[in-house]
From TrEMBL:
Amino acid composition bias (Basic and acidic residues), ranges on this chain: 32-50, 80-89
Origin: domain of life: Eukaryota
Upper taxonomic lineage: Eukaryota, Metazoa, Chordata, Craniata, Vertebrata
All copies of domain Major facilitator superfamily (MFS) profile, residue ranges: 161-728
The protein, known as: Synaptic vesicle glycoprotein 2A
GO molecular function term, any single one: transmembrane transporter activity
Organism: Oncorhynchus kisutch (Coho salmon)
Length: 733
């Protein structure tokens, strides 16, 4: 028996030598896939030897499920000191020693080698047949992957990943609110016109639209974790820069690129997390993850409330560089993204992504890490990960000539071109007949939901500001034909209209003018010093022998007026912060805080019921109730009434958003998941831009049109949602 064992060892070494020679010869012709082909040659040589000496050297069976798990006999053999072929002996050429990890043996390696590589004259299989085999592999992988996740359990690893990805989702929630909160201050600091303010308000959505599409497509090709790290890094860098740049155009560019970065977070985060969740946990825990978007909104509101009104938190260098408190707020809003990057570096890539791309060993190691982490946390460190082999999906390698004389730039160009074509092909695949109906239905649901939700959530604060403005205007005091002589004004003048007045030898010193209007009035031998004004104007007035010293009453403040022997000295340069909206700013932050906090009950209900009543019922039911709630908007004629309706609508509609996120993750296979999610999320941002633009145009004109638009869109979305397939209880494709 000992002599037979020595003969067997000698034969294996000889087979390896032959395989190496074949490898060197084949490398000149085939290039890629050589490792698979030579491994197959070695295995076949070993198999022939086993067939000849089957009586002397019996082969131990692999166990259950066709060799996917360790069998009892194999485990016993391991305990006795035996070793597998993957760690046997010492090869002098390859420097492989006994006990060294060389990869997990694959049950389907022979099929992959035959299908993807060959010798002289061998051709690639028919593409249709290849795609059919890939689909079969994906189905087998999906079933086995679900079984493996059941064995790994749900525990410490998933909860750690939950908080890490939650920070990324929180950064997305913060990004939505940043520009809206800083706009009242930034418009004065950067002298913004109405058109510029409108563009600044929409630029973030445009950036997020581009980012969702780009990063969603890349995440299916280069990995979820790597794509998320890149997009969060871009967001952090340009958020940081945007807090320091002074010009409007550079600030606009920074916020655009910041939006492009954070735009990839939602499609990647949900896809990434779903691939670590078993089917009975998926709907619930993806819904719990949605709470971090709410936390991001609360964080942004609280920071704005605490920072922006403190105008003392600022400094300036001459008149060229100013750093006001709203810039501190922008800087603070980058913290969630930075924290997400730091945390994400400790987490592994999605094992499902590796297995879908033929990287068996990497996927196996991560799943083992998940299993061991959870078992140790549950007090069962002795439990062993029983999986030895996992199904992988066949890959179509592209034979690209990367000769030694090719330049580095050319090589990178070829790689980028190949990546572009892969992403483009993956995007077009979601419109193939197999997914076409689902994609168009999902496009309609995403568009209608986003159009109504974002349109109304921006319309509500605008309506509240309009009501505040109307109430403020109702308290305006009017003065007509008054004559004031030798009076010194050194106190705040606010919300007054003076018509046909006469002011002689009066002094206006160190004061603020808020919403002051002087019409058809005469100022003679008057003196204005250290004046700060907001929404204050002099129309059709006459100034005779009047001196203006260190004021901002120039050009745009004095309209169609006559200046006779009057002088302006040391005018205040640039745009100043508007001090009139202190209370109004607090109200905006408070309303946003309440509106964001109001979604908490909806988040809790959707998380608890998602796996019980199903995704479609949750989506359609929440949309119908939101549709009905829209008609209550006609009764919102007061500030408190509009705030209450905002909270009601947000709390109801969040359940439909959670269901839509879960449904999108589960309707598409793993190799197209983030591509489809990114495209649908990009469409969502486009619908948001349209909704915001249309709804804002009706502020102060009519409530009927926004109500009908929102209710109609939600009704259509709920009807179409019922036509989608239910995914509850299904394995992740």
């Amino acid at each position: 028996m000992e002599d037979g064992y020595q003969n067997k060892t000698a034969f294996i070494k000889g087979a390896k030598d032959i395989a190496k020679e074949v490898k060197r010869q084949a490398a000149k012709k085939v290039g890629r896939g050589v490792d698979k082909m030579t491994d197959e040659y070695s295995k076949r040589s070993y198999a022939r030897f086993e067939e000849n000496d089957d009586d002397d050297y019996p082969v131990v069976p692999g166990g259950q499920d066709g060799g996917y798990y360790r069998g009892d006999s194999q485990a016993a053999n391991d305990e006795e000191g035996g070793h597998s072929d993957s760690t046997e002996g010492h090869d002098e050429d390859d420097e492989i020693y006994e006990g060294e990890y060389q990869g997990i043996p694959r049950a389907d390696s022979s099929k992959a080698a035959d299908g993807l590589a060959g010798g002289d004259g061998q051709q690639f299989r028919d593409m249709a047949q290849f795609e059919g085999e890939r689909r079969k592999d994906q189905e087998e992988l999906a079933q086995q992957y679900e079984t493996i996740l059941q064995e790994c359990g749900h525990g410490k690893f998933q909860w750690t990943l939950y908080f890490v990805l939650g920070l990324a989702l929180m950064a997305d929630g913060v990004e939505i609110f940043v520009v809206g909160f800083v706009l009242p201050s930034a418009e004065k600091d950067m002298c913004l016109s109405e058109e510029s303010k409108g563009m600044l308000g929409l630029i973030v959505y445009l950036g997020m639209m581009v980012g969702a599409f780009v990063w969603g497509g890349l995440a299916d090709r280069i990995g979820r974790r790597q794509s998320l790290l890149i997009c969060l890094s871009i967001n952090s860098v340009f958020s940081f820069f945007s807090s320091f740049v002074q010009g409007y155009s550079t600030f606009l560019l920074c916020r655009l690129l910041s939006g492009v970065g954070i735009g990839g977070s939602i499609p990647i985060v949900f896809s990434y997390y779903s691939e670590f969740l078993a089917q009975e946990k998926r709907g619930e825990h993806l819904s719990w993850l949605c709470m971090f978007w709410m936390i991001g909104g609360i964080y942004a509101s609280a920071m704005a409330w605490a920072i922006i009104p403190h105008y003392g938190w600022s400094f300036q260098m001459g008149s060229a560089y100013q750093f006001h408190s709203w810039r501190v707020f922008v800087l603070v809003c980058a913290f969630p993204s930075v924290a997400a990057i730091a945390s994400l570096t400790t987490m592994p890539e999605s094992p499902r992504f590796f297995l879908e791309n033929g990287k068996h060993d990497e996927g196996w190691m991560i799943l083992k890490q998940v299993h061991d982490t959870n078992m140790r946390a549950k007090g069962h460190p002795e439990k062993v990960f029983s999986v030895t082999t996992i199904k992988t999906v066949k890959q179509m390698d592209e034979l690209v000539d990367m000769g030694g004389d090719i330049s580095t730039l050319r090589r990178y160009k070829l790689k980028l071109t190949s990546l572009f074509h892969q992403v483009r092909s993956n995007f077009l695949a979601i419109f193939n007949p197999e997914y076409r109906r689902t994609t168009f239905m999902m496009m309609a649901v995403w568009f209608t939901m986003s159009f109504s939700y974002y349109g109304l959530t921006v319309w509500f604060p605008d309506m509240i500001k309009y009501i505040q403005k109307q109430e403020y205007a109702s308290r305006t005091k009017f003065f007509t034909k008054e004559r004031v002589e030798h009076v010194t004004f050194n106190f705040t003048l606010e919300n007054q209209v003076h018509r046909q007045g006469q002011y002689f030898n009066d002094k206006f010193i160190n004061l603020k003018m808020k919403s002051m209007v002087f019409e058809d009035s005469v100022f003679e031998e008057c003196y204005f010093e250290d004046i700060t004004s907001s929404r204050s104007f002099f129309r059709n007035c006459t100034f005779i022998a009047t001196l203006f010293y260190n004021t901002d009453l120039f050009q745009n403040r004095i309209i169609n007026s006559k200046l006779v022997n009057s002088t302006f000295l040391h005018n205040k340069e640039g745009c100043l912060l508007d001090f009139t909206d202190d209370n109004n700013a607090y109200m905006i932050y408070f309303v946003s805080f309440l509106g964001t906090l109001a979604v908490l009950p909806g988040n809790i209900v959707s998380a608890l019921l998602m796996d019980k009543i199903g995704r479609l019922r949750m989506l359609a039911g929440s949309s119908v109730i939101s549709c009905v709630s829209c008609f209550f908007l006609s009764f919102g004629s007061t500030e408190s009434g509009m705030i209450a309706l905002l909270c009601l609508f947000g709390g109801i509609s969040i359940a439909s958003w959670n269901a839509l996120d879960v449904l999108t993750v589960e309707l598409y296979p793993s190799d197209k998941r983030t591509t489809a999610f990114g495209f649908l999320n990009a469409l969502c941002k486009l619908a948001a831009v349209l909704g915001i633009s249309i709804f804002q145009s009706f502020v102060g004109i009519t409530k009927a049109v926004p109500i009908l638009f929102a209710a109609g869109a939600l009704a259509a979305g709920s009807f179409l949602a019922l036509k989608l397939p239910e995914t509850r209880g299904q394995v992740l494709q």
